[in-house]
Write a structure and sequence with these properties.
5-stranded mixed β-sheet, D-Maltodextrin-Binding Protein, domain 2, alpha/beta, 6-stranded mixed β-sheet, binds (2S)-2-hydroxybutanedioic acid, 342 residues, 11 strands
């Protein structure tokens, strides 16, 4: 008996004449299950490409019984609305950045925002591919959300219209951040003025001077054309941006088991793909920003980097009450990070 037999029964109510037909025919006849996957970044980014890869594999592995519609670039919903849409069932899949889970009531994900807590993708993967990462995903379930995978983006740069060489260069600047209390504290620590703003509004806010600067990965900077409206960019690697792919738990649990297992397979492979390309994409986009000649790029020297670390490290202690001292400790232990070393 085919592993899709249960699906066939589900889709066609056990009609015997159709039970032996190819699944692709049945799927068309019986209306595919639609997964709307909404996200806020461009298609040509690690997350955008990961979502497109998931679509390709999910449709292939289910022989078209599942149709994935990807809506990039906030075309369907902006940051805050997309989470509400998922909870209401208007979309079935999202991949918000780890900085955007606070409003969902799971503040612990903001631990990923702590400045300089990861010094490489390898260190990060010790968390996202290990028990600590899984324990964090488990915290989503009581909220009706299932965390399916961690997807990488990369390490952040800082930008403004004046050079940023020292933490003091950020003083008094209005800087756009994502909706994370840890990021808010990070900016306050250097006496900048953090402004929470949806991703889709950043370009215009910078262009019109509503904010002076921001932080992001190179793939996000380049694809949103932010380098066209910022004269200076500093490769500080002071923090990490990544994602959790999430789905509505009720929707996921309600899928026929055969479909769910094929989607799990598609998600595992799309995750490997997204994580493999993330660093390369960001490296390429750094070169693209450089080649544009629109913004001056500064790489921090070892001494300058040490000054940023010294200035920002107190955020770890201050944010214990927000993300939990135990959460921070579990990450230090997983990665071997030692704040005492600085
Ligand atoms: C942001 O700055 O809001 C980004 O992290 C968006 C994203 O999903 O990468």
């Amino acid at each position: 008996m085919s592993k899709f037999s249960h699906l066939r029964r589900t889709l066609i109510g056990g009609a015997l004449s159709l039970a032996l037909a190819p699944l692709s025919t049945l799927a068309v006849a019986a209306e595919p299950i639609v997964i709307k996957f909404s996200h806020v970044v461009a298609q040509d980014t690690p997350k955008g490409k990961g979502a497109d890869k998931f679509k390709e594999l999910a449709e292939k592995y289910t022989n078209g019984a599942v149709k994935v519609e990807v809506y990039p670039n906030s075309t369907l919903y902006k940051d805050k609305e997309e989470v509400e849409a998922l909870q209401l069932g208007a979309v079935q899949m999202l991949a918000p950045s780890l900085s955007k889970f606070g409003p969902l009531g799971v503040r612990e994900f903001e631990v990923f925002d702590l400045p300089y807590i990861f010094d490489s993708y390898e260190a990060l993967h010790k968390v996202t591919k290990g028990p600590v990462g899984q324990q964090l995903l488990d915290k989503l379930e009581p909220r009706g959300i299932k965390g399916l995978a961690y997807w990488d983006n990369g390490f952040k740069a800082l930008s403004a219209n004046t050079p940023i060489r020292t933490p003091a260069d950020l003083r008094g600047k209005k800087l756009r951040i994502q909706s994370s209390k840890v990021l808010e504290e990070q900016m306050r620590e250097v006496r900048a003025l953090p402004q929470v703003m949806a991703f889709s509004e950043v370009y215009q806010a910078l262009q019109t001077g509503v904010v002076d600067g921001t932080e992001n990965t190179l793939s996000n900077y380049f694809t949103q054309k932010v380098h066209e409206v910022q004269k200076h960019m500093t490769i500080s690697d002071h923090g990490y941006i990544g994602y959790v792919v999430i789905t509505n738990k009720r929707f996921w649990d309600g899928l026929p088991a055969e479909v769910r297992s094929q989607l799990d397979k598609a998600m595992d492979e799309a995750t490997d793909y997204a994580n493999q390309i993330a660093k390369e994409e960001n490296d390429q986009m750094l070169e693209a920003v450089r080649a544009s000649g629109r913004t001056e790029i500064h790489m921090l020297s070892d001494e300058e980097r040490a000054a940023f670390i010294k200035a920002l490290l107190p955020v770890h202690k201050k944010m214990e009450s927000r993300v939990g001292a135990a959460t921070i400790k579990s990450i230090y232990e997983a990665t071997g990070f030692d704040p005492g070393k600085f």
